[in-house]
UniProtKB/TrEMBL annotation:
It comes from the Bacteria. InterPro entries: HicA_mRNA_interferase (IPR012933). This is Hexulose-6-phosphate synthase. One of its GO terms (molecular function) is mRNA binding. The lineage of its organism: Bacteria, Pseudomonadati, Bacteroidota, Sphingobacteriia, Sphingobacteriales. It comes from Pedobacter kyungheensis.
């Protein structure tokens, strides 16, 4: 099993220790790029793919561990646009 496949399997299990960096690898795999924010962007990060599908997330801090609800939101978004199959 390739590295990204293992990461996707881990991502879909909604682990309690999934990091922001791991999420960035998942989004990059599906063609998402970070949109530059203005001066008052705070910790909200936006990502867009080639088809203008937008994901807006709160970057966790001071820890880099993602909240479960945020992981589930990304999973639902990726399923809705056809990147992930609904199991």
């Amino acid at each position: 099993m390739a590295g990204i496949e293992k990461l996707l399997e881990r991502f879909l299990s909604v682990p309690k220790d999934f990091t922001w960096e791991e999420l960035l690898r998942v989004l990059t795999h599906f063609g998402y790029k970070k949109i530059k924010a203005g001066k008052t962007g705070g910790s909200r990060r936006k990502f867009v793919d080639g088809k203008q599908n937008l994901i807006s997330l709160h970057e966790p801090h001071p820890s880099n561990i993602m909240k479960g609800y945020a992981i589930r939101q990304v999973i639902e978004h990726l399923k809705a646009i056809g990147h992930l199959k609904d199991e």
